[in-house]
Amino acid sequence: MIRGEIDNTVEGKTSGRLWVLGREQPLVLELNGDCWRDLAGTRLIFRNPLPKQQTGADLAPMQRGVVGDMTASRKNKVPLVSDDEFTAMCAAGQDVPFCWKNTLYLEWFSESNGRVVIETCDFELELSERVWEMDEDAEEAQKLANMHAMRDFMNALVRRIEPAGDRRIDSGEEEDEFQWEERLKESDRLADAYQEVLEKYLDDPDAERKEAFAMGWDGLLEALAEESEAPESAETPWQLNDGEDEDWEVDEAQFRQHPLQSKAHEVVLRGIDLTRAGGEHPAAAALNGALMQVAGKLAGALNGDYERETGYVLAMLKRCLGWQNDALSACSELIGVADDGDHSRALEALRDSIFEIREEIVNLRKVLKGN
Questions:
Q1: Are 13 and 129 contained in the same domain?
Q2: Residue in 4, 12, 54, 46 with CA at minimum distance from that of residue 28
């Protein structure tokens, strides 16, 4: 993004133009609805002091649809460390230092591209004189309309035909690897949708209720409403008093770590250490992200002693092979740019470990298929 303008001087209509790096003509916005009170009735001009080429969806030149939340006063937590430091601190369970900043947040729901968001605290902003005033009631009504637009978008994103495989519940039959893969794809779609909702309402004080509304979880909304209306109890029902937990035993088998998942977890830690030592590089994030996916999915598929369906485990292992391939590619790229012999050899050893885990996954799939 190079620069842009958002015009809400006509009540009920929001227009705009966005100049994107690499495109000769600006994107044009023609949206129904108004911005929040801080931008309502004004024309906002913004400039990016350090524009960079962005990857992602190719936006249609004409963006028609409805506004989402549009404001220049959204409060967000902004980390005070680099992206690599942020990843490493999160992986190590450390608290990340941050500050609160006003953020430019421009969201709309396009007929061509779905939900589109511009979010930054680095742009230079210039606001015109106000042509008309929005009162508090009108702003609340607009925010409610925005929440309904988000809910409609989420419903469309996760909508699907009820899988015929649900009949398996009555027959008692297990699903095979390919049926589980279809289920996992549905789960991915739902997880992606929920991730969007989490990111949108992350720092909102009423996040839980808004997330439930956007996802269409009306049962949770009702439970939250009942909880807020219930009188506060002096004691939390699930809270144990001193000495109450003496006879409580933990079934350690539930948390038993599979040797393959243990290796994958160890490789994650090595990857984070090595990429931190090697400086910033795009392949570092790809490497660590892929390794974390493998370790996390193997934990769900293999850890503990309870029995899982073979088709489910096979499907998860197949996905892990894809992430292992991504990790190998990223690791090879980092080896190619390493300017230190010791660091290069350490990355080569890491690549060997990734190969070993990949081979073990392949062998485990063969064993499971043989059964």
A1: yes
A2: 4
Residue 368 exposed, middle or buried by CB count within 10 Å (0-12, 13-18, 19+): middle
Rounded Cα gap, residues 37 and 41, in angstroms: 8
Residue 292: inside a domain: yes
> Per the structure, how many domains does the chain have?
2
Residue 176: φ, ψ to 5° = -85, 180
Query: Does residue 14 share a domain with residue 141?
Result: yes
Displacement of CA 120 from its chain's centroid (Å): 17
Q: Which residue in 218, 210, 348 sits closest to 274, CA to CA?
A: 348
Residue 94 has φ and ψ, to the nearest 5°, of -90, 155
What is the span of the domain harbouring residue 344? Answer: 256-370
pLDDT at 124 over 80: yes
Q: Is the pTM of this model over 0.85?
A: no
- In this structure, the strands spanning 124-127 and 13-19 are unpaired
Question: What are the tens digits of pLDDT across the range 313-365?
Answer: 888 888 888 889 999 999 998 888 888 888 888 899 999 999 999 999 988 88
Where does the pLDDT of residue 189 fall: very low under 50, low under 70, confident under 90, or very high at 90 and above? low
Does 179 map to a domain? no
Tally the residues of the chain: 371
Q: Which of 108, 125, 150 is the last residue of a domain?
A: 150
Residue 12: its pLDDT value, please?
94
pLDDT of residue 191: 63
Domain CATH for 349 = 1.20.1440.60
**What's the Rg (C-alpha) of the chain?**
25
Q: For position 104, what pLDDT does the model report? A: 94
| Distance of alpha carbon 11 from alpha carbon 2, whole angstroms | 27
